[in-house]
Amino acid sequence: MQPRNMSMSGVVDLAAVKAAQEAKAKAEQARAEAARQGGGAPGAVSPASLVIDVDEAGFEHEVLQRSAEVPVVIDFWAEWCEPCKQLSPLLERLAQEYGGRFLLAKIDVDANQMLMQQFGVQGIPAVFAVVAGQALPLFQGAAPEAQIRQTLDQLIQVGEERFGLTGLVVDPEAEGQQAPEPAEVPAGPYDALLEAAVRALDAGDLAGAVQAYKNVLSDDPGNTEAKLGLAQAELLQRVQGLDPQQVRKDAADRPADVEAQIAAADLDLVGGHVEDAFGRLIDAVKRTAGDDRDAARVRLLELFEVVGSDDPRVTTARTALARVLF
Questions:
Q1: Annotated active-site positions, please?
Q2: What global pTM score does this model have?
């Protein structure tokens, strides 16, 4: 059992943990406000740029790299394909309606045979997605709109919950459009629970902090502050009691041992060596396959949550991970 009064001050700066939680929450609020008001938001895109034509030369930049910040839906089509003429306009309309929650990339199969082969497209229209560099099939043929919406909603949920992708900020003023008023979400009574979690962290009660964050997430699974706090508290739990020298020796002696690399990456991050932690796990993903590769990838995504998706080091690492995975 975790000693309630154990000091963690030598392991991590708990003030920085709390500051990171607050910074991420404020960033999410700023993005939402920018989307509501339109214009002037850093990195904002125009509605027209939510639908792009992609060829083989631009695939890495326009799809792989962009998939580190937003799910990219790929529409494989051709001019002679009659069902494509029904599906493509629908996907384009939904891309505008969803307002930056996904990016639509249109690929003409006649001009991009290599991409068609790489994705294993057997017939068109065919719709795939790339999320954080990982390609997955969505559906084939001109599916009903309700089914497409359900698929897109699931894709966006996976992007948010597993990869921390919050989408793009859209500037409607670029084309003189009015931004839709977002639905007001009533604030949940979670302030006391979140404050209790922070107090538990300050006291070194990691088990208490983990439980407090889980209590919030059981009622509000999308609570950004709770997700970040839980990831940080669980990281501290994992490194507690480890012998840093032995962990680093094991990682150096056994470069192919994924568990050794994962433990060393946890220590790297707690010690403030963010790039080292990310680089170690990206290398592990690159060298391995199967369950080992998935374990390294999942831990890397968990560490992304600890640092925060708005951190530029996370963006850089997501791009590197995408290159390794694809």
A1: 81, 84
A2: 0.50
